[in-house]
Amino acid sequence: KDAAAKAKQMVDSRGNLAGKFFRLKQEDQAEIMRLYEDKKSGKSISIAKACEQCLAEKKSSLRENSMVAVKCTFKSMSGWFGQKPAIAVTPDDIKAWLQSHTEWSAKTKLNNLKYASSLFVWCVNNRILTYNPCKGVIRPAVPFRAVKILTVSSIRQLFKTCQENDRAMLGFLSLVTFGGLRVMEARRCLASNLTKGKIDLGGDSCKLNDRRCLDISPQLGAWLAAWQSDGQLYGTVGVPSFSKRLKSLIKLSGVALPKNSLRHSFCSYNLELHGSEATARAANNSPAMLNRHYLATVSKEEAEEFLALMPEIACKGTEPCNSQLTPTQP
Q1: Largest CA distance in the chain
Q2: Burial class (CB within 10 angstroms; exposed 0-12, middle 13-18, buried 19+) of 330
Q3: What is each CA distance from 224 to 216, 260, 311, in whole angstroms?
Q4: Could you give the residue ranges of the DSSP H alpha helices within 42-125?
Q5: Which one of 41, 59, 134, 294 is CB 3.0 to 4.6 Å from 117, fit for a cystine?
Q6: CB atoms within 10 A of CB 298
Q7: Is the pLDDT reported for residue 279 higher than 70?
Q8: Please, what's the b/e burial string for 105-143 (b: 16 or more CB within 10 A of its CB; e: otherwise)?
C-alpha cells in the first residue's frame, strides 16, 4: 500500500509539473529546456573558470591590444558572477552586470557586451552551453559623436616640432596623417612594407586581418623621404618607447591630440579633396561610413591647404628641414 501510494503521488506530481510546463509561455519553455540540456551535458563550469580557460585559448590568436581589452572584460565578469555556473547565467544577469558599471559609456558597454558574447560563444563551441545568453540582451545605443580633427596649423606645428626634436617619429605621424593608416597599422609597419611607391601590409599588420596595398601619394612620399633622410631607420615605424615619445611631442608642440584625430584628419581633408570612393579605398572603410562621419567637416580651402603641407612648408624656417627632398617613393 505504501509503495502504491508513493507511486501515485509521483505520477500526480509529474502530471502537475507537466501541466505547469505547458501553460508557460513559449520562450519560458525554451529556457527551461535549455537549462535541462545544459545540466544534462554535465560540463557546467563557473564563469570565473570559463574566463580563465577561454583566455588561455585566445592567447595564440589575439593581438596584444585586443588581449588587454578582453582581459579587462573577463576580469569584470569574474568579479561580478564569481563562481556562478555558466548554465545559470541569463540575459537579465548580463543586463544587470552592464548596468552595474555606471561609469561605462554606451560605447564601452557595447564593447564589453561583444567580449562577453565571445566568452559564451566559446562555451557553446566547447559544448558547455547550448545557448549564448548575450543574444537576449539589447545592444546599448551609442549616440553619434562628431569626430575630432586637427586644423592645418596644428598639423603644421606638430610636424615642425617632430622634425626639430624627434625625426624618428616622423614615419608614424606621416603614415597616419597623410596615408590614412590606423594607429596600430602604422606602428606595425616595417620599412620593407614601403616599396615600389606602395604601402603593402599583410593581414598580420591590419585590423581586419586582410592585406592592404595602397599608393604612396606625392605628399606622403615627401614626408617619408624626410623621415628616412634622418639615417636612423628602425625595423618598424613604431619606434622604441613610442608612447613616451609621442607624449613628449604633444607637450613640446602644444597641440592636443584627441584619440584617432590624425586618421580622422586624413579622412576629413581627403574626402573633400578626392570624394568618398577614393578616400574609402585609402582608409580601408566604406563610403557610407565616411559620409556619415566626415562629410562637410572641412571646407574646400582648408582641404587644399592640407594638401599643400610638404616638409619644406610645414617646417619653413627650421634647420632640420631638407628642402632638397623630392616626393618620390621611400
Answers
A1: 109
A2: buried
A3: 9, 20, 10
A4: 47-58, 64-81, 91-100, 106-125
A5: 134
A6: 21
A7: yes
A8: eeebbebbbebbbbbbebbeeeebbbbbbbeebeebeee
Point out which residues pair with 236 in neighbouring strands: 190
The string of pLDDT tens digits covering residues 73-89 is: 999 999 999 899 998 99
Q: Which three cell numbers stand for residue 140?
A: 546599448
Indicate the average pLDDT of the chain: 83
The grid cell for 272 is 573633400
Q: What is the pLDDT of residue 86?
A: 92
Nearest residue to 181 via CA among 289, 242, 266 = 266
Q: For residue 106, what is its C-alpha cell?
A: 554606451
What gap in Å lies between CA 270 and CA 82, rounded to an integer? 49
Residue 190: DSSP 8-state: B
CA-to-CA distance for 111 and 182, rounded, in angstroms? 19
**Grid cell for residue 132:** 549564448
Confidence of residue 320 (pLDDT cuts 50, 70, 90): very low
Cell digits of residue 20: 505547469
Q: How far apart, in Å, are the Cα atoms of 300 and each of 8, 188, 288, 303? A: 86, 33, 20, 5
For residues 23-34, one letter each, b for 16 or more C-beta atoms within 10 angstroms of the residue's C-beta and e for the rest, the string is: eeeeeeeebeeb
* Burial class (CB within 10 angstroms; exposed 0-12, middle 13-18, buried 19+) of 222: buried
What 3-state DSSP class applies to 198? strand
* Cell (9 digits) for 32: 527551461
Q: How far is it, in rounded angstroms, from Cα 34 to Cα 87? A: 9
Let me know: does 24 contact 32? Beta carbons within 8 Å: yes
**Residue 66 CB burial class (10 angstroms; 0-12, 13-18, ≥19):** middle
